[in-house]
Design goal:
Organism: Streptomyces cinerochromogenes
Order of helices and strands: EHEEHEH
Shape: globular
Largest sheet: 4 strands, antiparallel
Protein name: MTH1187 family thiamine-binding protein
Structural class: alpha+beta
Radius of gyration: 15 Å
InterPro entries: MTH1187/YkoF-like (IPR029756), Thiamine_BP (IPR002767), UPF0045_domain (IPR051614)
Distance between the termini: 29 Å
Strand order of the largest sheet: 2-3-1-4
Family: Belongs to the UPF0045 family.
Number of helices: 3
């Protein structure tokens, strides 16, 4: 499964990068395949391990912010691995035509 999620602290002002970095640090330390871009962090693995990472990432932000917003989108597709890479490679092949 791939989960794309965004954790945003609320009530801390406009500069939230330091808080978001706390969440991304949790993902990176998880050892699961992941990618971070300007809007979301995607992480790939089994249901329980991915949801545990999301929960811990939210907790990291929640520890310093009075309120947290979580946006989550999941691609649940049993038997598929390396989807973070293969999905992008498929699109790139079509673009190269």
């Amino acid at each position: 499964m791939i989960v794309a999620f965004s954790v945003t602290p609320l009530g801390v002002g406009e500069d939230v990068g330091e808080y978001v970095a706390d969440a991304v640090r949790v993902v990176r330390e998880s050892g699961l395949p992941h990618r971070t871009d300007a809007m979301f962090t995607s992480v790939e693995g089994e249901w329980d391990e991915v949801m545990d990472v999301v929960k811990r990432a939210v907790a990291a932000v929640e520890a310093r912010a009075p309120r947290v917003s979580l946006v989550l989108k999941a691609d649940i597709r049993p038997g598929v691995t390396d989807g973070l890479t293969s999905k992008v490679e498929t699109v790139e092949r079509y673009l190269a035509r």
